[in-house]
Amino acid sequence: MCPANLTPEYLLAEKNYKAARDNEERLYWLEEMLAKIPKHKGTDHMQADLKRKISQLKQTIESKQKTRSGGHSGKIDKEGALQVILTGPANTGKSAFLTFYTSNETSAVTDYPFATETMTPGMARWENLNIQFVDTPSLKEGFTPFYVFNQFRIADEALLILAADENLEEQYELSKALLLSKSIKLSAGNKKYEADGIVNIPAAVLINKADLKNDIMIPGTLKNDFPGRLIFLSVMLAEKRDEIFKAIYTCSSRIRVYTKEQGKKPNMEHPFFVPGDTTVIRLAAMIHKDFVEKFKYATVWGGGFYDAQRIGKDEVLKDGVIIEYYLK
Ligand SMILES: Nc1nc2c(ncn2[C@@H]2O[C@H](COP(=O)(O)OP(=O)(O)OP(=O)(O)O)[C@@H](O)[C@H]2O)c(=O)[nH]1
Ligand SMILES: [Mg+2]
After folding, report:
1. Domain that holds residue 288
2. What predicted TM-score, i.e. pTM, was given to this entire model?
3. Are 114 and 206 contained in the same domain?
4. Among 31, 33, 128, 198, whose Cα sits 20 to 30 Å from the Cα of 6?
5. Domain-located, residue 163
6. Nearest Cα to Cα of residue 134 among 110, 101, 163, 174
7. Does ligand 1 have an atom closer than 6 angstroms to the CB of 94?
8. pLDDT for position 112
9. Residue 104 — φ and ψ, nearest 5°?
10. For 298-325, what is each residue's pLDDT tens digit?
């Protein structure tokens, strides 16, 4: 009997809630149950019960977080232009990446696996952008805390770090399967999106420890899944920094646009970092609402336009363009 007419989505969330292994995962599914429960008189009691459980669980999680030292076991808010989550199996060099490529040198690099138990952010400056990375506990069934999977919902992109070893293909397949079981798919696309409950997140792959093994066979599955997004390197030697950041930049499908005031030099230090399909008028709205109301035309330099070319409000901007607005 099902008097409340519960939907399949609700029942699935409830099933996942019952199977959850840690409090973060329980909280996630309880919130899903509350979102999916049909809202009518017959479910009033159930809704109240869910709300009570959610608030109790939040308190438990918060009090546990306070007693932990060091990294985060909650979520890490985005700072800078992009947030990139570091992920992969144990001992592949994720913490080493944070140490050698960002200004945060506190993440513990260890020679034993599963040493990282919390999440730690680190910021890197590349050209005129600040890119935030998040070091995470490694991927393994039964080990990875649920908050790691939740962080994929916040991050813009992922870097999958594998180690150059005989079992490279296995490392990849296990990572892929575990992520997929938590509704996350690393994609070779340029746009993050959610479809059928699966979060598709743009990703690049680092195959680390090239100094130990330089004759590695790259499995066909990896080549097919991430064409042009595989980088073979030694993280400990801080190699290929530019190549990595260029891949991250491309994955974002965003562009940098510089604004200029009349008679002044453009501000090249602080670009607007906007989606690749941003039009002149959309950028105007980001600057000030007056710019939209009073827009007359704009002139642009660079980005494939003629110097000082006059353009209208619906023109799509291009990477590296400098723009000056003329108002009525
Ligand atoms: N030879 C070599 N060793 C590396 C490189 N990068 C990392 N390592 C070593 O690999 C081991 C694991 O590095 P970590 O950065 O702790 O790896 P992790 O992925 O964070 O591992 P856990 O969080 O403990 O699962 C350490 O002994 C590092 O010194 C590299 O480029 N070359
Ligand atoms: Mg680590």
Report:
1. 257-327
2. 0.83
3. yes
4. 198
5. yes
6. 101
7. yes
8. 83
9. -95, 105
10. 999 998 889 999 999 999 999 999 999 9
Which residue, among 238, 168, 156, has the nearest Cα to 205 in the 3D structure?
A: 168
Ligand 1 center to 85 CA (angstroms): 17
Helix (H) or strand (E) segment spanning residue 148: helix 146-154
Residues 306 and 219 in one domain: no
User: Tokens at residue 21, please?
Assistant: 């292994």
* Model confidence pLDDT, tens digit, residues 213-247: 888 899 999 999 999 999 999 999 999 999 999 99
Q: Mean pLDDT across the stretch 281-305?
A: 92
What residue owns the CA closest to ligand 1's atom 32? 209
| Residue 293 and residue 197 share a domain | no
Which token pair is 299?
């002139």
Structure tokens at 315: 């023109």
Ligand nearest to the backbone CA of 87 = 1
Which residue reads 């079992």 in tokens?
167
Q: What is the mean pLDDT of the chain?
A: 91
3-state helix, strand, coil in the chain (%, to 5): 35, 25, 40
